[in-house]
């Protein structure tokens, strides 16, 4: 036992053995995942599995000691620091799920908003449990599971989960068996870093449960205020729909909130039926069509693509689309730009039939 005027360090054998076991497990898993990446730019992590060495040491140290504070301010400070690290690691886990560990690429303002949203979820959990640490563990575990689901969606479709995807969840489940998800090195680092932070909570001063209904009701009210603060803070942010940019630029959960805003249709400024009638009167009446109406046959083939648009790097030993290329007479051809990516192809059909963007 080590002691000073602020705290004591107690050594625990059983928890120390658990820490050694978790440390060895992290070493083994990260070594097995050493060459597993998804994105090509992610290969810039040579020797990333060596992170398992300091992680194994930290698991062992954290498991072997327990901090007993001698002053209340020490306990509050330690738990506050752990809370902040837990929030940051939870954000980092969502980044690792889309093959990124660069939390430093986010603006501080956006990191702050993500922590505020995380705190709102913790306050909701606290209103039921009355324990801060337990609430953090519950929220971070749920968010970790969501991050894993988001990772698999990103692997399959090339972009992350948005609010509009919830309506297609049933369809996604029916085709999920045809895909094989991949667990990567960066995901492993994020998982064991999260596990290390959760495990370290048992070495810190315990928080006493609050049974007072007023305290729990206050926590729920605080959650509402924090959600409103988050919504107000991200009102001018731009949603990221492409690849894993939702997590790397906005944070996955903030980006998901933005997708909720984006799913609602708002009337344009100064919109009115009278204004539409005035705009319509600016165009001349084309009159009734004369003659026979043409037969227009439209084939929307989602699997068709002319890969020659990628340039000289795409070469084949025989023509790619010879019949399509032979259609020259009475043919209008070109390239279409669609509003959807990685799903929601019904948007293209709707836009074609209605001319609405």
Write down the overall geometry.
flat
Chain-averaged pLDDT: 84
Q: Identify low-pLDDT runs.
A: none
Alpha plus pi helix count? 13
Order of helices and strands: EEHHEHHHHHHHHHHH
Radius of gyration: 27 Å
What is the rounded distance between the termini? 70 Å
- Helix percentage: 40-55%
Strand order of the largest sheet: 1-2-3
What class, by secondary structure content?
Answer: mainly alpha
The count of DSSP E runs of length 2 or more, i.e. the number of strands, is 3
Sketch the major β-sheet. Answer: 3 strands, antiparallel
Strand proportion, as a percent range, falls in under 5%
Describe the protein's architecture and organization.
With about 350 residues, this protein is mainly alpha-helical. The chain is built from 13 helices and 3 strands; from the N terminus they run ββααβααααααααααα. Strands 1-2-3 form a 3-stranded antiparallel β-sheet. Helix 1 packs antiparallel against helix 7 (about 185-200), helix 2 (about 50-65) packs parallel to helix 7 (about 185-200) and helix 3 crosses helix 4. The radius of gyration is 27 Å and the shape is flat.
């Amino acid at each position: 036992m080590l002691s000073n005027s602020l705290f004591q360090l107690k050594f625990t054998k059983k928890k120390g053995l658990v820490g050694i076991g978790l440390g060895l497990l992290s070493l083994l898993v990260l070594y097995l995942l050493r060459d597993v990446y998804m994105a090509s730019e992610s290969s810039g992590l040579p020797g990333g599995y060596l992170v398992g060495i300091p992680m194994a040491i930290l698991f062992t140290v954290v498991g072997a000691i327990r901090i007993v504070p001698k002053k209340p301010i020490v306990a509050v400070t330690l738990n506050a620091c752990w809370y902040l690290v837990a929030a940051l690691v939870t954000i980092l886990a969502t980044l690792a799920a889309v093959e990124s560990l660069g939390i430093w690429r986010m603006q501080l303002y956006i990191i702050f908003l993500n922590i505020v949203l995380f705190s709102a979820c913790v306050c909701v959990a606290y209103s039921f449990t009355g324990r801060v640490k337990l609430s953090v563990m519950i929220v971070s575990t749920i968010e970790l599971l969501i991050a894993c689901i988001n990772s698999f969606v990103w692997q399959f479709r090339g972009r992350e989960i948005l609010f509009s995807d919830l309506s297609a969840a049933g369809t996604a489940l029916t085709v999920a068996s045809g895909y094989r998800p991949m667990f990567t090195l960066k995901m492993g680092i994020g998982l064991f870093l999260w596990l290390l932070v959760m495990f370290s909570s048992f070495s810190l001063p315990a928080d006493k449960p609050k049974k007072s209904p007023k305290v729990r009701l206050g926590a729920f009210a605080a959650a509402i205020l924090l959600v409103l603060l988050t919504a107000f803070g991200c009102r001018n942010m731009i949603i990221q729909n492409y690849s894993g940019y939702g997590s790397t630029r906005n944070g996955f959960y903030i980006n998901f909130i933005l997708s909720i805003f984006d799913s609602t249709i708002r009337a344009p400024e100064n919109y009115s039926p009278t204004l539409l009638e005035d705009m319509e009167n600016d165009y001349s009446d084309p009159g009734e069509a004369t003659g026979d109406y043409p037969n227009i046959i439209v084939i929307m083939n989602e699997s068709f693509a002319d890969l020659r648009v990628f340039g000289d790097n795409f070469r084949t030993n025989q023509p790619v689309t010879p019949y399509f290329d032979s259609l020259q007479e009475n043919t209008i051809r070109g390239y279409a730009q669609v509003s959807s990516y990685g799903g929601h192809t019904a948007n293209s059909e709707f836009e074609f039939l209605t001319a609405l963007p």
